[in-house]
Amino acid sequence: MIKEWQQRRAVGRIKGGDGRALKPLRWWQSVTRALFYLPLTHPDGRQTVYAVDLPYRADTGSGKARAHLYLDGRHHAESKLPAAFPVEGGTIEVAISTFGVKRSHYVTTAGAEHQLVPDPKSAEGRRARVEREHPGLSRSIGFLSVLMLLIGVGLNLLQLAEPLSRIPAIAESVGRFESPVHLHVWLNFALAVGAALASAERALRLRYTVLDKAGR
User: I want to staple 10 with a disulfide (CB 3.0 to 4.6 A). Which of 53, 59, 84, 147 is the partner?
Assistant: First the structure.
């Protein structure tokens, strides 16, 4: 029920497109723009290609980032994020996080989910190529990303627990907690950078979870 309400709200944010042509992704835009495709073959044999263009910069009018939907190369619709575009056979759902794209999926009316295909020149497309051509290296990078996030979340919890345990009401009920780990400022900074890079790497694979949110 909550999901249906969220979808109705997202649909209400959609504005019609102006028909302009989709601009190709340039190599220097790989960190400022994401581009995904959804080719669809319809029961009558007709083929269409949807494209979702995601400039990470905020819209000058609203101050919020927007997703732009193109149909066969022409601007079809746009919406503030998170976005849900009704298309033939389902809905294209799009959302971003601090570190990149966290959702770009086609959800059919039957409930099946399919991740959209990233443009080969985008950062997401280049990461997908590493996963496709070098699966062993890709798994190692993915494992390291999860490890960095776990370390970051664990240390954050330890350092947060100590000052919280000094609150009189908490100290009286459970006692005071002394963190066994006290890191230098430079090491805290290095771990924070590592967790941010790990979240960014996972965002390139659209692997956003609660763990990524906690590691911010």
Answer: 84
